[in-house]
Amino acid sequence: MSTQEIPEENLPSGQGETAHGAVKVAEDPFADPGLPAHKPRIQDIDERAAKRSERTVALLFTVSMLSTIGFIASFVIFPINHIVYIWPFGHISSLNFSLGMTLGLALFCIGAGAVHWARTLMSDVETAQERHPIEATPEVKTKVMEDFREGAAESQLGRRKLIRNTMFGALAMVPLSGVVLLRELGPLPEDKLRHTLWARGKMLINQNTNEPLRPEDVAVGSLTFAIPEGLEESDHNFNTEIAKAALMIVRLQPGDIKDKQELEWSHEGIVAYSKICTHVGCPISLYEQQTHHVLCPCHQSTFDLADGARVIFGPAGHALPQLRIGVNDEGYLEALGDFEEPVGPAFWERG
């Protein structure tokens, strides 16, 4: 059936025959309706309403600052192992809960304050502009700068000093949360790297036999490894402590010792030095009897035990620390104190 044979009342709306019998096409249903007329907000016409919005934004930024302070204070107030019951979360860490709540509130208030500021005080006039080429012309650049200055004026950042100051305060304090989080990367070293388990009166225990050492147990030219009295391999901190307190004992002829302090800190030619290489902390295990040199197997740093364990070859930066030793009333070798300097390689706070 042709179009001409369809009754006019059955044709779609907007269609029909013209005087020449042609079908009339409907109007474009997707025509641009244009922008609706701008309606001013209450803040645009009432300065009191604008002041209320300003105070609201400032309050949100202030709450953000207080939340950041609460985040930092949580590290001091709540112990890491304190558990509390909070409905509906159940039993949770009070520290984790306080950190999450305070940091979340700080970030939320900054966002909410910025949104409320934009919706109530900044200009909401909509403008339409045709797309322009990627490379801007001088006229466009001038227009952009004018628009920027106009936007800065419309934001009322210079006029609303209360908002500006509280916003800057909130944005400046939130990063402090990240600084505080650095504290949780691990325990502070304090002066732990400067001290070991060695102390006056602690006997030297043979690491192989787990028995106290007597002077006669150490033969001339032999290399013996020792640990502090009281340190057991079953201890949970054994690896941490042995990494600082591992000791090697060598017996030399007193006449072969060149360094005066080394001779004073020895006992009948028995010298005790840290086993930890001062390059990268490898354990020293090779001893040459004729030269009295010890060698680190990792990078071949060589130390002269007859001359204060000074470095004679390799990348090590300084001599091995010596432990002053003596003999107790029972005839066992004992320490007369701790090492006088940190053992192992250099570290960031070494003075």
Task: Give a quick precis of the structure.
By secondary structure, this protein is an alpha+beta fold.
What topology emerges from the helices and strands here?
Layout: H1 42-45, H2 47-77, E1 83-86, E2 90-93, H3 94-120, H4 138-155, H5 161-173, H6 175-181, E3 204-206, E4 223-228, H7 238-245, E5 247-251, H8 260-264, E6 270-274, E7 286-288, E8 293-295, E9 302-304, E10 310-313, E11 322-323, E12 325-327, E13 333-335
Helix pairs in contact: 2-3, 2-5
Structural features:
transmembrane helix; 351 residues; Rieske Iron-sulfur Protein; iron-sulfur; alpha+beta; 5-stranded antiparallel β-sheet; 2 domains; 4-stranded antiparallel β-sheet
Shape-level CATH architecture of the largest domain: 3-layer Sandwich
Order of helices and strands: HHEEHHHHEEHEHEEEEEEEE
Largest sheet: 5 strands, antiparallel
Over the alpha carbons, how many angstroms does the gyration radius reach?
41 Å
Unreliable segments (pLDDT under 50, ≥5 consecutive)? none
Q: Give the helix/strand class.
A: alpha+beta
Strand content: 5-15%
Assign the CATH topology of the largest domain.
Rieske Iron-sulfur Protein
For the record, give the distance between the C-alpha atoms at the N and C termini, rounded to a whole number.
Answer: 103 Å
Q: Give the averaged pLDDT, no decimals.
A: 85
Individual helix count: 8
CATH top level assignment of the largest domain: Mainly Beta
What name goes with the CATH superfamily of the largest domain?
A: Rieske [2Fe-2S] iron-sulphur domain
Total beta strand runs: 13
Membrane topology: Multi-pass membrane protein
Keywords: 2Fe-2S, Cell membrane, Disulfide bond, Electron transport, Iron, Iron-sulfur, Membrane, Metal-binding, Oxidoreductase, Respiratory chain, Transmembrane, Transmembrane helix, Transport
Subcellular location: Cell membrane
Domain Rieske: 244-334
